[in-house]
Protein: Isoprenylcysteine carboxylmethyltransferase family protein
Organism: Salinarimonas ramus
Amino acid sequence: MSLPHRSAVVAWSTWAVAFLVTAGLEPRLGEDIAALSPRLLPLVIAGLAFIGIVAALQREMGLALEASSFGEPRRLVTSGTFAWSRNPIYLAFLLPLASLATYAPTGAAIGVGLYLAAMTLCVVVPEERALERTFGAEFDAYRARTPRWIGLPRRG
């Protein structure tokens, strides 16, 4: 499975687990879905915000929202949002996960923890190896100054 597809599988699988845990902890979630309750608005807004952020970040990277645009990286994007995080698209997925906290903070926390662990081990680390092979010293310098998830860029 290619890395872009692997990231989608990891992201949506962890969201599904977090959703099921949240629904188990807070039955009102299922009731609200059945009734299309306005209490679902934070979840809907978080999902739409995620889509908007991903579209903006893909534009920053020079990609379209089509799977055919993925493949071997042609250039290393290190400016803009990518100066603050090496993985801002993956970080954006925390919005839909965190929105589950409006129903059950424990379900959201489990989802966020599972997501960060699975994404790091199954997607980010293999991607970093591929970027190191492709971009060598340029990626090493970027990795040294930019946090994997989020933070202030380090001078170096």
Notes: Residues 3-145 form one domain.
